[in-house]
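FIELD: query
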Amino acid sequence: MNANRNTSHETTATDTLDASGSRTATETSTTSPRPHANGDGKNPSNLSPDKTTAKKHGRKILAAGAALVVAAAAGVYYFRCVLPYESTDNAFIEGNVIPMASQVPGRVAELLVKDNQAVKSGEVILKIDPRDYETSLAQARADVAAARSQVNQAQAQVNASQAKVAQAQASVLAAEAENQRAADDLKRYQSVDSTAISKSAFDAAQSQARAASANLEAARSQVKAAIADVTLCEAGVETASAAVQQSEARVRQAELNLSYTQVTAPEDGHVTRRVVEMGAYIQPGQSLMAIVPRRYWVIANFKETQLTRMRVGQPVEVVVDAYPDHKFKGHVESIQSGAGARFSLFPPENATGNYIKVVQRVPVKIVLDDAPESELALGPGMSVDPKVRVK
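FIELD: result
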């Protein structure tokens, strides 16, 4: 029997007695119900048409209600989670990368750090052989001592010259007194009658007067020479003092050079790109390694069409690709005045050839409000997804 058919007929012959007592054969038709598709033996066709219509109508109402709920949820999600935000996947972590180099040449005596090691500000990370610089410092200190000795010697010469000045001035006083006496004697000889004195006595008085005058002039010249010698000695003191200052400057430079033999970390951070090895001879300015401080920000390259409602100070939620479960809070610090392509090495020249308009990207600097956890291996160049709340 076919299960897809609605009914099946069976014909049976029965004997019935009529009024005359004769038997007649009649045929009866029996209808067997089709089993329900689920095998429970119920036939849905037995339901009344009103109930079937009501059931279909209820299903339509439920479907329409579910569609409205989904549409409402999608609308709420769009207006609350999509419309007020601007996001981009063209964003990366940025940070300071401090190249480390030596300020003096020498051979590496100690290498105290490894790759990716955390260091503190002021921590010694490398030592250069200091023996040459210790010798230079000792020589500079000896030069200072010698220069100071020359200053003392020059000062002593000044004192001696000043004593000579005093002596010369005393000689001038004596010469003036002798000159005055001789002049007085000559006047007395000139005031008496020539017959009262001899010619030789008069001539002697004149000679003594002239000699006393010459001695006075000589004494005065000695005073001038002594004073000039004092000035010369004082200049020698200044020269010696300048030599002391030069020697002291060389001492300070030698001390600096000796301190430069210990290379220290300028900030807290991690050692990266270490290229120096133990025993290597390094030159001033040669790159040794880099220190990356744990001070990061985000550079997000938004499309220019996304900047319409973006302003400085708006809150930002940042998700790092390496740590999708961590969400960092930040804010927009600044928006670059110009597209990134304009500041590239070869900016586009749109005035030549066929022009095709391309949506430009503008770098936006996003600063994190809180420092990231120390156990997170964050660093410049890592990809992030920032979401700026612009409304």
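FIELD: remark
The two ends are 71 Å apart (CA to CA).
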